[in-house]
Input
Amino acid sequence: MLVVKDEQIRLLEHQNELLRKQVFGESSERKVDDDGSQTNLFAEQVAALTEDGITTDPIPTETETDSKGNKTRNPISSKLKRVKTTLDLSEEEKACPICGEPMDLIGEDRTEKLEYQRAVLFVSLLLRPKYACKKHPEAGVAQAELPPQLINRGIPAASLVAWIIYAKYFLHLPLHRLEKLFNHCGCEVKRQRMCDWEQQVAEMLGPVIEAMRRQIDSSGYVQMDETPLKVMKDQSDGKLATGYFWPRSDGRQVIFEYDPSRAGKNATEFLKNFSGYLQTDGYSSYDNVALRPDIIHLACWAHARRKFVEAESQDKKFCSVIVAKIRELYAIERAAKIQWEQIDLDSVGESEDAINQKKYAARFMMRLKGKAGDKVTALFKLLEDNQFNYTPQDPVYKAIAYVIKRKELFITYLYDGRLEIDNNQIENRIRPITLGRKNWLFAGSQSGAKKIGIMASFVGSAIMLGVDLYEYLLWLLEKLPAASTLEDFKALTPLSYRRSLHDSK
Output
């Protein structure tokens, strides 16, 4: 009886420790050295890789230096326009105080200050003159046709709707704050009207979302996850239910599918047109779809590491050893990413696909040189040798069992340079949804939840591709009313936009 009670007490203390960390602790799983610094986090691993002929030197960055060669702050972005003002001497002050002759200009000092100009609302007025023949009124009236409008009979131009989407889904400003902002700019724009505009545009964007689905599903490698969202069940009583976004990404674009449930049938439905590598966490809903012969399932090492970090209160020594060994695998990935930066510098002018192939080959070779396969094999042997040192209820046992059960899934990332070591890429795309929830709190309906998913898909994809989000949204909404064919909608996806920018350079 005492042994059972001790075990129960130990498990309760572990649960209490996890809860304490969730409420008061840091969210990061990064480890620091005993002296509190992180400077040597990858030192041994990176040094070993360098000895194997793998360079990990960072790419130098540009900094300003003063006349004595000392480094100063980085300059303000050269992309910003400069408004020049010259502070000059009077003609009298330009005269030499000794001989009285005008002094020669020998140079100038520059002082740059970052300025801000408040947002401005203005009205664009489109005039369409009408023409008629007084002699032949039966000929009718001639007039230029009105171009397709984003919101028929509505007042917002594409620039205003683009800003509303940008502010709500990137800056996470709820509509009632935007309403106040527009009031300060001199125009009353009710939040309900903004919500209606969002809904109309979301419906128009449906074919573009479908084109994004096709691009993602044909990529051959997808990461997938799920995240909850509070949705109002019935506006009459204000009760909330929990729905779920099912985001999936090919590393370039992301789609946020919505469904009221977290059932496994959703994974099956959303992935029905996909074949290739599927990377997920350990959620069981993906098990059935992973049985398909045209899908290769792989796991996430970040989730494995998290299990052992959470179990450290039960056996800190063993868990720290496992976390350190996983860290060695990440050191190899970090070295590969540093090499990618050099590939970008060396491949200016080449096609995007050619550059990516170089990167994938470099990462595959980095894993071979860093002996990632041997490290994974040694790690699994250590786990298998120690699994039964713990009871099945012990968090350390559960962490070990979680990894061993998915052994093949954890090894799979080594087979292809395209594959990431973890699912963090898709989890990073979920974070904006999490931040947004803290501001707009819930979706007002099921259709409202789907609208949020559509907007988040465009915002997340533009961020992943590194394009200017507002410029893309403006370009998209200006061209959207005239789009009618599948090719038209395909040309409007974030990936197509980025490729058009790359081709124009």
